[in-house]
Amino acid sequence: MLLAAVVLIVIVALVFDFINGFHDAANSIATVVSTRVLSPNLAVAWAAFFNFVAAFAGGVHVANTMGKGIINFEMLRAAGPTAVLMVIFSALIGAIAWNLLTWWWGLPSSSSHALAGGMIGATLPVLGFQGLVGSGIARIAAFIVLSPLIGMTLGIAMMVASTWAVHRQTPLRVDTWFRRLQLVSSAIFSFSHGTNDAQKVMGIIAVVLFGTIWRDRPFHIDWWMIISCHAAIAMGTFFGGWRIIRTMGHSLTKLAPIGGFSAETGGGVTIIALAELGIPVSTTHTITGAIVGVGSTRGWRAVKWGTAGRIIWAWVFTIPAAALVSVIVYGLTLVVVRLVG
């Protein structure tokens, strides 16, 4: 019975990873599609490939943070296998529900923060506030603000540097060069997306396994967790969330290939650097900041601030909304568990 429950929740975790890729496909390909460098079908295949390649070079710093840096893993494990399974199941369902809702609305919210919110909400009924790791949550919350600002800064810097480097060239030549370079920048960003986002589910799967059937083993990330999570997020990216792609690629600002290259490179470098530090940041927040930064180099009116405002509201509500849903799911799960004994 316990083994069957563990397998079920690992499958749910991989479903969340698939939905993460589906939801966040826009982050990786919106600019390369909006600038018509690649067709949508080729773009998602390109992004999915580099999502998966990240499995072989991405590390597991973010996975360890997600597994032990939001909730007190040892305290949760001490509460027993049933508590572990119910908390993680509720957290995953809360995050999945918020992701699907924002996908339906076409809003690029953060899958990372939805999962963090789900874990926070599901832990509170079991362990209370002492079951949360305040320093880890504070760091994640801080980068809700910092990651888009860093992405914006690097996007502006890349755009200014790129424009200066080619200011003596004809527009046709510049467009030709950066259409090719955007393949590289899109690959960088897709790699960074796999590096950061796939690791979060590795941490969740590790909590489930080492909190239940492998309670006598030390917490670590196995190779099969790495491969399966990267495969799931790559498949999700391949099937893509086109509603959000339209918002990211067309509704925020109009991008030329040089702008797409600058936004993707600035956003990708930011995410890779923060992943090496073990900080689970939002690829959505980062690339949105980078796109807005690139657009703002053409003047304040080049950015559609009404759309940006809608996106910011989605960011603000992600953690509390996912936490609330996970609390409700936990309550319903508790009723079912008691009914079946």
TrEMBL record:
Signal peptide: none annotated. Keywords: Membrane, Transmembrane, Transmembrane helix, Transport. Coiled coil: none annotated. It is found in: Membrane. It comes from the Bacteria. It is a multi-pass membrane protein. Its main location: membrane. GO terms for biological process: phosphate ion transmembrane transport. GO terms for molecular function: phosphate transmembrane transporter activity. The keyword Nucleotide-binding does not apply. GO terms for cellular component: membrane. The chain crosses the membrane at residues 44-63, 83-106, 112-133, 140-166, 223-245, 311-337. PANTHER family: PHOSPHATE TRANSPORTER (PTHR11101). This is Inorganic phosphate transporter.
